[in-house]
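Ops channel
N.P.: pipeline sanity check, posting one input/output pair.
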């Protein structure tokens, strides 16, 4: 009642004289048009109350009272246009105050009036109404989308393809805001197709909205591509607004930053900072500065980061930017291990963020909560490095004050990393293990694009190495060919020399009878020549012997290297086996402190799986072959081990092994060992009653170098309600996953017991 009285008095004292004039001016049929300037002032005063709506209901009442008075003044035929303008403003006030029922009544009046100007005008009025909705008021999302849909349907009737595409973009925006990302994505892709067909130079508007949808739906790989397309399209538009460019550059910089492409992120941040200085938007300037500093910290270019932070005092800054700068400064000192400077910042950091936290909570922006978590994270990270566990726990409560479903996967990793450390320090190891699994899942889901980049880099390196090897091989072949040519030349020279010597010797014998003196003289001369040639031959033979000796030494060296390699591989397998035994011992010790039987059983199962792997490495280092495992011996030892550890349960259980002489390399032996361990353990635990039974294990070669592994028991079989294709069981899910790793087939039969079949192709 107080609010109503306040609105009445305000309206009466300020506009009472104005409201009374139309009635006075209707006397004797005379109508005087009121001053339109006065009406515009009333509208302006009503709109001035809009920012204060969230503070007190009285401001809403005051704004509506002003517009009601203006509506009464303009309710004459001569002021029809001004009257509907007042109605539009009143509808806007009702929308922003979340009074959608009253607003809808005005929508019909306004659009009916605009319809007289044409279909396009009516469509534009529906679109303008949709633009007036507040994104913070979720209850208005369906009505907002309905307004945009009506605008789209009407624009289709006009045949203006540009307006139709723009209107569908508004519909997509409404779906994205409401959280229907799949629908929004399809709508935005259609809009982009239309823009391309129209050769619309501002197509970057469509790419920006598509990128926003991918960001909110956490499709990281598509998100960054859409950001890049947006920037490229903007830079192709010479008349593009620099305000738009600032938004696009910074969004792409953040995307690069998240995907650890720091050099590219810095380039985008710098472009955004330059535009910010041109616009004198210092808040945005500091935003780019802090982003650049963060990248330089990741690149460990600390001196550049320090110099950049010195620019922070040049321009005025808001509380939010002050928090951002403190975050980067603390992160920089922590990375540099400058603990003294970091400690001095902590109190100032906490005070600033205590003031910033309430603003972040009420900020409806999609990025506000993420920005707070990311900028606050250096404080708990500092507590971890300095082992201040009590302070770390308090900082975790601050991070957890935001709903996790409002954060991206990368940001959620920060929260769970702090939670993992708090649980570990507090001795809550099961919770810490769950946090570790959550972090792993989040990291895997958000690193798809990064993984492809790494694969591309590895592929490039691989091609480079192959190229070097090919060159080396060609050089070796060329050297061998040259050696063969040299030997051929030597043989030819030797034959020529022998031929010449023989001919000369025959000539000497022939002419010896005719001229003894002359022949003797010639003979001595030729003999000297022969001796010279023999000296050359001796030298060549000596070089040949040296080459053969070098060859033998090289062969011996290669044999030594091969032996050393085999010894090292055996040592590696030995150490792996020992380390696995240590892990099993740690698990056993841990289980003695556990009171929960399910936890003990889980640790016991983990020990068995580790032992299955340990047996493989034991086989590898204890045999001559260090790259393969003999399947018969391995399965025999594994079943023997499982028999011993379940001795109380298998007094009447017998194993029947039918294993062909097959060897597996280690990449296939480990999955097979884990599958066997899981299948045999399940049969021992669940297949038999008190009477026991038989577990048969067979491994047979199949066609096309395949292997068929079967584990069968004659027990009671699977329950009737068991779904064979389901992964609800951890053991069955693990066996299916391991079979997929082998690129094989997995099946379960339940006739006269349970039979598990695994088929895959052997790696040669």
């Amino acid at each position: 009642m107080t609010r109503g009285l306040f609105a009445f008095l305000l309206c009466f004292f300020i506009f009472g004289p104005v409201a009374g004039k139309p009635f006075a001016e209707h006397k004797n049929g005379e109508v005087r048009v009121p001053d339109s300037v006065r009406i515009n002032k009333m509208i302006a005063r009503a709109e001035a109350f809009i920012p204060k709506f969230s503070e007190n209901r009285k401001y809403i009442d005051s704004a509506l009272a002003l517009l009601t008075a203006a509506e009464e003044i303009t309710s004459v035929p001569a002021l029809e246009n001004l009257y509907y303008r007042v109605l539009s403003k009143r509808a806007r006030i009702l929308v922003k105050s979340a009074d959608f029922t009253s607003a809808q009544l005005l929508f019909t009046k306004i659009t009916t009036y605009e319809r007289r100007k044409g279909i396009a005008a009516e469509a534009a009025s529906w679109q303008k109404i949709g633009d007036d909705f507040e994104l913070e008021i979720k209850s208005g999302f369906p009505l907002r989308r309905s307004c945009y849909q009506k605008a789209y349907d009407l624009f289709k009737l006009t045949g203006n393809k540009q307006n139709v595409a723009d209107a569908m973009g508004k519909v997509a925006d409404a779906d994205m805001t409401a959280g229907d990302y799949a629908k929004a994505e399809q709508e935005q892709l259609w809009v982009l197709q239309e823009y391309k067909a129209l050769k619309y130079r501002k197509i970057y508007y469509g790419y920006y909205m598509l990128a926003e949808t991918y960001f909110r739906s956490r499709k990281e790989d598509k998100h960054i591509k859409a950001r890049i397309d947006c920037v490229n399209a903007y830079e192709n538009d010479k008349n593009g607004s620099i305000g738009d460019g600032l938004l696009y550059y910074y969004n792409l910089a953040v995307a690069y930053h998240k995907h650890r492409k720091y050099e590219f992120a810095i380039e985008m941040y710098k472009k955004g900072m330059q535009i910010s200085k041109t616009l004198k938007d210092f808040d945005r300037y500091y935003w780019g500065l802090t982003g650049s500093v963060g990248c330089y910290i990741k690149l460990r270019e600390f001196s550049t980061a320090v110099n950049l932070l010195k620019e922070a005092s040049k321009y005025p800054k808001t509380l939010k930017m002050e928090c951002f700068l403190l975050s980067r400064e603390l992160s920089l000192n922590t990375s540099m291990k400058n603990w003294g400077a970091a400690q001095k910042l902590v109190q100032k950091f906490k005070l600033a963020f205590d003031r910033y936290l309430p603003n972040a909570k009420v900020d409806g922006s999609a990025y506000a909560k993420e920005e707070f978590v990311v900028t606050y994270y250096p404080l708990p990270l500092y507590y971890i490095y300095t082992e201040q566990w009590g302070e770390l726990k308090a900082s975790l409560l601050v991070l957890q004050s935001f709903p996790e479903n409002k954060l991206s996967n990368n940001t959620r990793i920060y929260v769970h990393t702090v939670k993992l450390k708090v649980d570990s320090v507090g001795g809550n190891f099961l919770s810490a293990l769950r946090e570790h699994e959550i972090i792993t899942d989040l990291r895997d889901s958000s690193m798809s694009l990064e993984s492809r980049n790494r694969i591309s880099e590895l592929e490039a390196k691989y091609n480079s190495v192959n190229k070097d090897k090919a060159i080396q091989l060609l050089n070796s072949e060329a050297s061998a060919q040259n050696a063969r040519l040299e030997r051929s030349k030597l043989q030819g020279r030797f034959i020529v020399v022998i031929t010449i010597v023989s001919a000369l010797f025959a000539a000497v014998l022939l002419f010896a009878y005719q001229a003894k003196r002359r022949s003797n003289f010639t003979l001595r001369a030729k003999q000297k020549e022969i001796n010279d040639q023999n000296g050359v031959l001796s030298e060549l033979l000596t070089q040949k012997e040296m080459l053969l000796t070098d060859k033998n030494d090289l062969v011996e060296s290669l044999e030594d290297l091969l032996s050393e390699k085999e010894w090292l591989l055996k040592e590696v397998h030995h150490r792996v086996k020992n380390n696995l035994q240590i892990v099993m011992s740690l698990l056993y010790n841990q289980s003695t402190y556990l009171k929960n039987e399910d936890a003990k059983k889980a640790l016991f199962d983990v020990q068995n799986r580790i032992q299955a792997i340990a047996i493989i490495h034991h086989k590898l280092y204890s045999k001559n072959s260090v790259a393969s495992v003999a399947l018969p011996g391995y399965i025999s030892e594994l079943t023997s081990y499982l028999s011993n550890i379940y001795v109380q349960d298998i007094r009447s259980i017998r194993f029947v092994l039918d294993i062909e002489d097959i060897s597996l390399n280690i990449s296939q032996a480990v999955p097979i060992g884990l599958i066997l361990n899981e299948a045999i353990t399940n049969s021992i635990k669940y297949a038999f009653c008190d009477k026991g039974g038989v577990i048969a294990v067979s491994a047979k070669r199949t066609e096309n170098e395949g292997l068929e592994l079967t584990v069968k028991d004659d027990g009671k079989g699977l329950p009737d309600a068991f779904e064979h294709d389901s992964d609800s069981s951890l053991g069955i899910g693990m066996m299916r996953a391991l079979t997929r790793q082998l690129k094989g087939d997995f099946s379960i039969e339940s006739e006269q017991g349970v039979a598990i079949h695994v088929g895959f192709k052997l790696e040669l």
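N.P.: looks fine end to end. The domain at 318-446 is CATH 1.25.40 (Serine Threonine Protein Phosphatase 5, Tetratricopeptide repeat).
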